[in-house]
User: What shape does this take?
Amino acid sequence: MARLDEGRWSSRPVALVRSSCSVLCPDQGLARRRTHRTAWNLSLSHFLLLTLTACTCFCLSAWAQTTDVNDVHVQPREVEKPKEAPKEELVTTPGGLSARVRPLKVDVDLVLVPVTITDPLNRLVTGLEKENFQLFEGSSAQEIRSFSSEDAPVSLGVIFDSSGSMTSKMDRAKEAVEFFKTANPQDEFFMITFSDEPETVSDFTNSVDDIQNKLVFAVPRHRTALLDAIYMGVSKMRQAKYPKKALLIISDGGDNHSRYTENEIKSLVKEADVMIYAIGIYDRYASATEERLGPQLLSEITELTGGRAFTIDNPNDLADVATKIGVELRNQYVLGYRPSKVVRDGKWRKIKVKLLPPKGLPPLRVYARTGYYAPVE
Assistant: This one.
C-alpha cells in the first residue's frame, strides 16, 4: 500500500518515473538537445551525400550522351589472313567430259604452234626458215611474230599397255626405252601402265633408270582401258615443269574397259596443250573388233594434238621408231602469232599451217595442232 502525504495509505500504485521527477533536470535537457542536434546533422550529411551522388550520376549520363562516338578509337588487332588455295571448278568439255580441276588462266595473246615437217619417206626435214611458213586462224592469215627450232626441255609421259592383249608383244614393247637415249638432261618423265584401269607407276623424275626399272615389272593381264589411261596422262600433265609437253602411247590400240568414250577423250586432247605420239603394235590377224579399230583410234587422237601415230608390224622395229620420235620432239619448229581478232568467247579456233618449201624439195607433209579454245576472260 502506498502512503499518502497526509499520512494515509492508498491502494493505487503510483508511477515511479513521474513520482521520481515530473520535470527534467537541467543536465537531462542538455543531453536531449545535443542528441537532437547530432541526429539532425547526420540527416543533413546523408541528404547532401545523396544529392551529390545524384548530381554526379546525372552529369556522367549527360556527358556520355553528348560525347561523339567517333572520339572513341579501338585499334583492332590485325590478324594475317591465310592465303586461300585456288578453288577447284567443274570443267565440262564440248564432248560432255567432266573433270574437277583447278582453273587455268591462259593468255592467248601469243599463240605458239609446234610444227613437224617430214618428206615422202617419213624422214624429218630440218633447216627451214620463217619465210617457208604461212599460218591461218580460220580464213584469216596471221603474221608470224616468233620463230624457233631449238631443243627445249620436255615433260614426257609414257602410257604403256600391260593388258592381256599385249601378251605376245610385251618383251619387244619394253624396248621402247630406247626412246630415252635421246633425252635432254633437263627432261622429266612419268609412266602410267594400264590394263583394267590405269596406274601411275612412276611420278615425274629426271632419272631414265627409274622408268626403265619400273617397266621391267610390267606383266600383261586383264582387259584394256586405253582411253582412261590417256585421260589420266593428260591430267597428270597439269603438274609438268616445262611448257613443252608430250605423251607417248605404246599399245595395240584396242579398248574394251574404259569409262570414258572416244568422243570425250578427243574433246579433252583438243583442249590440252599436250602433243600425243603413239607406237601401235598390232597383230596382223586380230580377231577382236577393238583391236582391228586400234590403228584408226590412235591415229585420230594423235593428229588432233599435232603428234602422229607409228604402226609397227614387226616388233623388232620398235626401238628404231621410239628413237625417231625422240629426235622429232627435239627438232620441231615453233611458230608464234598474235590473233588479229581477239574474242574471248571460249570457242574453238581452227589453225592451219601451210608450207612454202624451197625449190627442189619433194612434196612435204606438215604436222601441227588443228586449233585451240579461246579463253572466256
